[in-house]
Structure formats: structure tokens, C-alpha cells
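S., here's the first fold you wanted:
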Amino acid sequence: MAHLTIHDIALRAGVSIGTVSKALNNYKGVNEATRQRILTIAAENGFRANSLARGLATKQSRVIGVFFNDSINSGFLHHYFQRVLQGFKVAVGTAGYDLLFFTNAGFTEDRVTNDYLDRARHRSVDGVVLMGMDRFDVGAREIACSGMPCMSIDMDVTGPRAGYVQSTNVEGARAVVDHLVGLGHRDIALIGDRYQSKPGMDRRLGYEIGMREHGLTTPPHWFCAGDFTRASGHEAMTALLREGPLPTAVFAVGDDLALGAMDAALERGLRIPEDLSVAGFDDIEVAASCSPALTTVRQEMELIGERAGSALIRLVEDEGYPPPVINVETTLVVRESSGTSCK
């Protein structure tokens, strides 16, 4: 029969539509003989189940919503999030789910809250992942508290069925300070995150803990901030160079910030690392190929996405699964941009 439907298969097999959908999607609760009868009818007629048929039995769309925004509007070109999304896509796809990306179209300036929850429910997604947005976003908090399965990336947003994944940012930043102090540096400046994201704040915290552990203090003018772009790293380093006296090392909470800081230092005639050591965080691709190659902290970006995807699918399929907080280990990568202190 051409264009065989799930209803046709149910009639031929003498079972309900729900039983057919369960059998086609390999769910429990179907007698094995019945399952084989349904599969044989479907195969003989070239039937392929669609998402609507699946939903009749499972009340699931098998679609995961992705809310992705970032402060610099780099979208899918973002060094970090493009690789996180790759890992997330693989984990979700392997489990048999599709992705639906939500845009920001339709928001107006006078909106008090973002309607993430309404939009997710309207599209009947089984769960959502949040990434790149403000950790205090009212809409993000609303969806986390709603009971909808939800995982966040680098946002400490929790709820009845909402958890998050993050790198060990505090420990990574402490490792940078330990490394620089081990090279003889005591005057270490920080280029932080002006948007106070959780990763930015955690990396600053790790820096401060590391400095205290070594009995070191930081003058106020050695705290600068940027927006994780190379241009803002250049701007922050230029401001730091104007103040004086100069530090012997700079730790930037993102690689693009560190690259911009190196640009500004080199323009000033400073040698890296002979006059100034520089370290970043992320280990983006260009970190290994720039000159000098950048000392940084490696984040396992695809693994972060994979862990978030796997946890979200578990939340969707197991109502008893407690929402997790997952920490992915970081690794210090020493390259040419850090060297022995000149003082």
C-alpha cells in the first residue's frame, strides 16, 4: 500500500496506534511476537515512523530546544560555543533526538522577561539547553523552575529538573597563578570579565585565591576588564600600560583577551615573555599558532557539550534522575608566552 500510515499498520496488526508507535520506536511494554508482526508489516510496506507517530505513544517530540545567546553576538562563530554545541549535538543525536535552535526574533526592548518557557512549550520540545546568556536572566530562571528538563552551560541555574555543566574554572586560574609564581613573578595583573559571567567570576576568584596563597597582593589599577574579545583585551592592556608601574605578568580570563593584551604590549615595544609574560584561558585553536604561542588553560569544550547533552537526555527519559552539577577538568598548557620574571 502506498503511503502506509501508522493507523493502517494498527488495523493490519490488530493492535492500537499506541502499541504500533511503541514497537516502531523499540520501547518497552510490547509483546515480542506483536512487535515482530508490526515491524514486518512496516518493513514490507516501506513505512518510516515520523515524529508525530512517536509522540502518540510517548508524549515526546524527541526534539531538544537550544537557547543560545552571547554578549558579543558572535553566534555560531564563537570559539568556545561552536565546539560545545558540536559535543552537545553528537550526544543528543546519538540518543535519537533532533535539535531546534530558538532565535531572538520577536523580542522587543520593552519586554521585562524573555519568554523562553512559552516558546519551548509552544514548540513541544522535550527539554532545553541554555548557553551564553546572563546567569541572572529572568527567563532562564523561569524555565529552570518550571519542571521542564533543562541543562545550562556555564550558568549556575538550578531547579527541580535543571542542572548545569561547567569547567573547573577556579582550579584552572589557580594553576595559572602557581605557574607564574613558579617562574618568579610576583607582580601579576588580571584582565577579567566586565559582564561578570560565572566563568569570568570563577576565574577571578581562582586568581585571587592563588595570589593570597602565595602572599601576594594586587594594586587596584592592575585589575582591568573586557568582554572576551581581542579588541577589549587590547583596550584593557593599553589602559594598564598607561598606569605604571608595569606588572611582569598578565593573566586574562579568556584567550581572545590575552591575544589582545599581547597585541597592545608588542605595539608598546615590550617583548613577550622577556618583558611581560601573558597567560589566557580556553585554549582556542589560534592559541597554539600565534607568535609567541599562548600559555593557557585548556577547556574540554566538546566534552562539556557531550556531558550536558547526555545529562539532559537522562533528565528527559528518567523523571527520578536528580539534576546534576557537572565539573569538567581543565589542564594548564605551558607555551612560549610565559617565561622567567625579568625582576
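And the second, which I think is the more interesting of the pair:
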Amino acid sequence: MQSLKPATLTRCAAGLAATILLIAGTDALAGATWSPAATLATASQPATLYNPAIAANGAGKQVAVWVQDGQVQARIQESGVWGPTSPLSPATGGGSSPSVAVAADGSVTVAWIQDQGNGHSTLEAAFLNAGQWGLPATVSNAGISVTSPRAGVDGTGQATLAWAEADAAGTTCAIQTATGRAATGWSQPLTLANTCHGFVYLDVNGAGEAVVGWSDQGYLSGEGIYAATRDASGLWSAVSELAIPKYRQYLPGVAIGEDGTAVVVWDETYTGLNYSRKRRDGAWSPTAVAYAGIYSIASLADVAVDGQGNATAVFLIWTMLPSGAMAYPLQSVQLKNTSGTWSKPIYVTAKSQNISDFTVEASPGGSVAVAWLDYMTGKSGVASMLPGETRWSNVTLGKGSSEVALDMAAGHAATLWTSGYSTTSLNVSTAVAP
């Protein structure tokens, strides 16, 4: 599954100086030996190196992308060796929010926002094919501003992009999608909804099925949760309103498994963790509560679905420690494909931790990993759970982080983070478990 929920890039702003990006790999994460850290990039000021993203495929290819001094850059790892840095956007700056996907055949798609001035921006995308980066192409419509770009890829190498766009006045808006290949270029944008929304999330499986979920940026005013799905033939469904606008309801997590099961989760302040599930060729289930607790209110949620359609939802809770201090750890619940009931919650991190950013991914074989950032300690790490296990295995990986991202492919793993303050470095470690 190629899942890009940079959820990670927009869910929480910790305001810290450095960034971590994690990939934890294979269906046997436990006992993996991590390689010594290698530095992929350095910057003299923390604010000039940001927005990391990563993708991996089952052949062990890994692609790291980030923004440095307003320029989108990329490095590729194959056979254990990281290649040189490739600039993808103009050196004059204006690039931001890259998203990356790598196909089974090794082709790569990177999409990002390019500022065009005068309040306008475009969605640009570049392909890596046969080891060569192509020139960026403009995928979005003219005369608008783009937010929340997401990229995914199917088993044939067809890339899918999803994004939100709006005019300068914020009155003409749309949720858009497009497909493309290196050999043929990009389709014209397809409008999924003519509404103004700011947070868009995408997941694509190997068969080409996809789910797009979105909400608005109205955290206090409340916003609805919406989703559309695409079948393997390329036909998009009508938009479904999964939840009407409510106070402090936003940022859905979305995922689709190889069996076509799609799941959307989101936080609703008064009821807790909400969800809806859609099986292949089926309809979205009625919105229901996956978890609700006293003094532990679900807030910020993400979800992953494995190859058998089993879902793991991870969410931030607010809880009071015996000392009277508040803490913000992570918990998780699981929904088996054959069940209609979520499991009881378990802690992903220690109960005393204060998590400000996180994301979850599942491998086709059923392993699950969570990348997290603890803003109080300035530490980041990854938790993993193998098929059949009932508890998370947790490891701390680094210090001084502000964002995390995560991707999983069967058989491979890597972790990437920034460290330092006066000088910031982007570091990577990889792992292969039997």
C-alpha cells in the first residue's frame, strides 16, 4: 500500500526546530538492525530545511524529498546507497509541501506547490523514469491557489494526485484529482467537489482503487467530513458526507487496503473517535464511534488498512496523570475486516508522553508502524506491531523534531530525521528485517 497522509505535515505544529521522518520496514520489524545514520542534507538555519516526505516500494527503493531554501529536492536510495541530491523546483524558491510516491517498477512521482506570486500557486509534478528526472509539469488549473497536494501510485505505475484549489477571493473552490504516467503525462484535472476545503488526504492501492477524504480548516467553527472513492476501472464515486459540520471536527485519516476496504477516521470533540468503512463495491457504513472515554478525548486521528482489510486507528488523547499534570499520549484500536466492533484501546506510547505529531501505516502482510514526536522531550520514535501481536514495540530514534512522516512497503524500512539548531542536518537510517 502506498499511503501518503502527511497528515504528518499539517496535523500538528509543534514549533520545534528540527524534523524527523520515519519509515519502519517489513513484516518483521522486531529485531531489525538499523544502519548508522547518514546525512542527506544540511542547512545553516533550521527554518530553511523542512517539509520532508518519503516513499518506498517492495524492491527496496526509497525516495526522500524535502524543501531547502524554498527549493524541492530529492535523493534516492537503491541497493543501500543514497544517490546525489536532485533539485526539482526552481532555485529561486517558492516550492513547498512535496508529496512522493514510488511504483513497483521503480518509477517515482513527486508533486508540490509552487508559488507563482500575486496570490497564485500551482501544483507541479515531476516523474523519475529510467533513472532520469523529467521536467516539472503544471497539473492544476490556472489562476488559482493550491493547497494540500497528495500523491499515490498503483501497481501498474499510474500516479494519482489529489489537491484543493481556490481563487484569490476564496469563493470558487474545488477538490481535484488527476492521473498520469511518465510516458504520457497528466490528465486534465477532474473535479470531485466544488466546495472550499483545505485539508485533503489520499490513499491508493495496487489495483488502482483510491480514497480521497477532506475537511476544512475551520477547527473552532467545525467542518464536515467528506470522502469519494475510485474503483479499479478509474470511475470515481459521488461525494459522501460522512459527518455534518461540528465543533472542532477536522483532519480525517484515510486508508484503503489491497482488498478494496476503505476506512476514514476523525475526531469529534464530544463523542471521540468516529469512523466510517466502505467495502469494495459497497456503501459507506453509517458514522459510528470507534472509541470514547472519560478524561481521555480522542483528538487528531490517523488510520491504516492492511492487505486483508484490517484497520488500525491511532489517536491522541488528553489524560490526567496521578500528579495532576496533563499528558497527550497515543492510543490505538483495531477493526478486523470480519468484525463490526473495534478492539479496546491500548497505548501506543507511554502514558506520560506528550505527542504533537504522528502517523500510522500498515504493510500488505499486516504489520503496523506508528511514527511519533514527543514535543516535551524533543524525541521522536517508532512503534511497531507484527501480525498476531497485541502490544506495541516502541523505540526512540532521535531528538529535536517537529514533523514526522511514515511509509511502509513489504520487506523494507528507513528512518529520516533532522537534528541540530544552528546547523540542521537531515539524517537517514535504514533497516531490513527477515
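Why I say that: The helical segments are 7-10. The domain at 7-19+40-359 is CATH 2.130.10 (Methylamine Dehydrogenase; Chain H).

Talk tomorrow,
H.
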